[in-house]
Amino acid sequence: MTHAWRIVVGADDAGLQLKDLIADTLRTDGRVVDVSDLGVHDSEDHRTYPDVGLAAAEAVARGDADRAVLVCGTGIGMAIAANKVPGVRATVAHDSYSVQRSVLSNDCQVLALGARVVGPELARLLVSEWLDLQFDTASASASKVAIISRFEAGEGGEHVHS
Length: 162
Ligand SMILES: O=C[C@H](O)[C@H](O)COP(=O)(O)O
Fold this sequence. Notes:
The protein has helices spanning about 15-25, 50-60, 75-85, 95-105, 120-130, 140-150, and strands spanning about 5-10, 30-35, 65-70, 90, 110-115. It contains six helices and five strands, in the order βαβαβαβαβαα. Strands 2-1-3-5-4 form a five-stranded parallel beta sheet, sandwiched between helices. It has a single domain (about 5-135), classed as Sugar-phosphate isomerase, RpiB/LacA/LacB (Ribose 5-phosphate Isomerase B, Chain: A). The site of erythose-4-phosphate has 8 residues, from α3. InterPro entries: Rib-5-P_Isoase_Actino, RpiB_LacA_LacB, RpiB_LacA_LacB_sf, SPI_LacAB/RpiB. It catalyses: D-erythrulose 4-phosphate = D-erythrose 4-phosphate.
């Protein structure tokens, strides 16, 4: 399968170094046609993980980017922030299987990484594997993701309370 991903990247101060490494890696990856770096750009840039995570997720929601890689200390804050943007599904994942399922089961467009959790080479490997994954809208997982989307759109009623 060929890809032409447009990727937005972002980080807070804790994730700056790993974000820059991932951005450099993405810029030389033939599967990526555009890398948009929302910062932070240096130690003088004091924007927080929600500032950057929300902006990146909004870029995905608008269709300005296909996907986002977001880095903070743990990845958790970035994922929480990104998941608040309607239409965006974000995950923290630091192992291949979780990265794979986040796309194939859950149609996540946002991968959040923790610079204080994962080493740079594993992070680069995970991002590389992630670029080869694409959600299958005809898969059995699609109807499950659709329940979340309908709930988000205020069209609840089909999910079952137990
Ligand atoms: O999830 C949040 C991130 O890990 C962030 O980089 C650190 O947040 P804190 O400074 O509030 O601990």
